[in-house]
Design a protein that fits this description.
Helix content: 55-70%
Structural class: mainly alpha
Largest sheet: 2 strands, antiparallel
């Protein structure tokens, strides 16, 4: 979803939100002024998940050997290397920037385009940073909560950050016939990879939730706050969006 699409979504959402009751204190506390629109897209994404994403992820997890799934995950993670470097520099974490750069170089070359995670064995563990987190480090709050069709939970700050991060991706600098399809394949593989890793987590949360939308909103907010604070252990306790 590009910036123009987001503007359209927000415009429609504001129209819907204008018809909503002002006494929804829970939504106000969660900074969710577009809750009617967000719930609509949340339900849409849930239907899409039940009929497409979950079956694909379940098949992927059961039919593809664990080693190959690990290789795919490594490649996807490695593609985020330049994004990590850029955001570490912007956050003035120059030591982490150097480690992220070395990790990307090692895994891209010796790790054969990131298929093998050699860098972790060499003492260079993965540490993901994005521009949304960088904005958070500089004191910019998450802003209004968003649920984007086909993408899921986000916020105004994090959507903006993701748009900026796209310019640092290696795929952004590679121009060739079919590059659009490569980007689509990467996005699809990333979604399947993430969903397959969270099958049990999402199922358990939904079964235990009175309001699945509200609990997922709270978990997303908490995860992003902890990522900004770089609390990796506490972040690992929450579902990965």
């Amino acid at each position: 979803m590009d910036a123009k699409s987001l503007l359209l979504v927000l415009t429609l959402g504001l129209a819907v939100a204008g018809c909503a009751s002002d006494d929804n204190k829970e939504a106000q506390t969660a900074d969710d002024p577009l809750e009617p629109m967000n719930r609509f897209f949340f339900d849409f994404n849930q239907r899409l998940d039940r009929h497409a994403a979950l079956p694909a992820a379940t098949f992927y997890a059961s039919a593809v050997p664990n080693g190959i799934r690990g290789n795919v995950h490594n490649v996807l993670t490695n593609l985020g290397g330049p994004v990590n470097v850029a955001n570490d520099i912007l956050e003035a974490d120059f030591e982490y920037a150097g480690e992220a750069g070395a990790r990307f170089l090692v895994n891209t070359t010796i790790g054969v385009a990131g298929i093998f995670d050699v860098a972790t064995d060499w003492g260079l563990p993965e540490r993901s940073r994005d521009f949304g987190e960088t904005l958070g480090v500089y004191g910019i709050g998450q802003g209004p909560y968003l649920v984007l069709p086909f993408r899921g939970p986000s916020s105004v700050r994090d959507f903006t950050g993701g748009y900026i991060d796209g310019y640092f991706s290696p795929l952004h600098f590679v121009h060739y016939s079919g590059s659009t399809y490569v980007g689509l394949v990467k996005s699809s593989l990333g979604s399947v990879d993430n969903r397959s890793a969270n099958i049990v987590t999402y199922r358990d949360i939904e079964r235990a939730s009175v309001d699945y939308y509200a609990i997922m909103r709270a978990y997303y907010r908490q995860r992003r706050e902890r990522q900004v604070e770089d609390k990796a252990i506490q972040t690992a306790e929450l579902p990965d969006f």
